[in-house]
Design brief:
- This protein is mainly alpha-helical and about 325 residues long.
- The protein has one domain.
- Helix content is about 70%, strand content about 0%.
- The chain has eleven helices and two strands; from the N terminus they run αααβααααααβαα.
- α6 runs parallel beside α9 and α9 crosses α10.
- It starts with a helix and ends in a 5-residue tail after the last helix.
- The relative contact order is 0.17.
């Protein structure tokens, strides 16, 4: 029964992540429009956009290789694998033993590498510029994630996401300054990894702010739909990851039964809604920065993560 419950919750979790990814993106856009005094598109608009793009055949450049055909599918598979490992409404799912924070980071890096290869394949100026700029983000963000993983491992005794969530939910680490610092660093990395403001406004084609948009200029039809869906899934994945690590409450055990799963689903939806609202409030209250200030922002996140790990290593009382 435990194995059957783990399989069922894993399938429900993956279906939930895949189905709600465009909705999460649509809700954030709608909330931001309402905060700016505009009506905004319906939260269901991303579903319509994806349906429209999926009906179109992709147009490829004459010198495009097989990478341009395979990269969208490969990136989506890597992103889906990462989403399957991040817990949402329930813990103890079938793939929970493999749900390590470092594994999730590696899968996200593989998905980004697929996008970079697709951007460089045709050899356009904008694609190369966007790929070069996008490569600077993992170089600065991945050390922050590794230091945060070190802090979580010291606090919870593991880098497994289910184990971290269970330890934090039971209050084992207590209220620690190091946990707050690591959480703040994770928030900064999440904003940068999803190209959110103040680094870049979604849909911006201003040359100083072009990252993913520059890499997608040669994509069209089904390929563009896969990239857009992958971006929405990555945003949902990061919000679920932050909810599991920083708000690990309301998750149901895999063998608790449908009623507990429903309560866990409601708790997960509430946490994602709060994070979406916080994200849109931050984007609405902050002005867009130049892309060249991104290293300074991620450097600050690295300093916070390093300070969190140092406090834990030194064992300075309630730190």
């Amino acid at each position: 029964m435990a194995l059957l419950a783990g399989i069922l919750t894993q399938l429900l979790h993956l279906a939930l992540m895949l189905a709600t990814a465009p909705l999460v993106l649509g809700v954030t856009r709608w909330l931001r429009a309402r905060m700016l005094g505009r009506r905004g598109a319906s939260p269901l608009q991303p579903f319509r956009d994806l349906d429209r793009l999926l009906r179109k055949r992709p147009v490829l450049a004459e010198n495009a290789s097989w990478l341009s055909e395979a990269a969208p599918q490969a990136g989506l598979v890597a992103c889906m694998a990462a989403a399957a490992l991040v817990p949402s409404f329930a813990g103890g799912m079938l793939l929970a033993p493999a749900g390590d924070l470092l594994v999730v980071v590696g899968l996200l890096a593989a998905a980004r590498m697929a996008l970079l290869l697709a951007a460089l394949d045709v050899g356009t100026a904008f694609g190369g510029m966007g790929a070069a700029r996008a490569m600077s983000i993992p170089v600065l963000a991945e050390p922050v994630l590794l230091l945060c993983a070190v802090s979580f491992a010291i606090l919870a005794g593991t880098t497994n996401l289910d184990g971290i969530a269970a330890a934090f939910r039971e209050g084992a680490p207590g209220l620690r300054l190091s946990l707050a610092l690591a959480g703040a660093a994770m928030l900064v990395v999440a904003l940068a990894a999803n190209a959110r403001r103040p680094v870049q406004g979604p849909g911006s084609l201003a040359e100083p702010a072009m990252l993913e948009e520059a890499m997608l200029l040669e994509s069209s039809g089904r390929h563009l739909a896969l990239w857009e869906y992958q971006s929405a899934l990555r945003l949902t994945l990061w919000l679920s990851l932050l909810a599991a690590l920083l708000l690990p409450y309301g998750m149901a055990p895999a063998g608790a039964g449908p009623f507990a799963w429903l309560l866990g689903l409601l708790a997960w939806a509430a946490k994602i809604g709060v994070l979406c609202l916080a994200l849109t409030c931050f984007e609405g209250a902050s002005a867009r920065m130049r892309l060249f200030r991104l290293p300074g922002i991620l450097g600050l996140a690295l300093l916070l993560a390093l300070l969190a790990a140092a406090l834990l290593f030194l064992g300075t009382g309630p730190a």
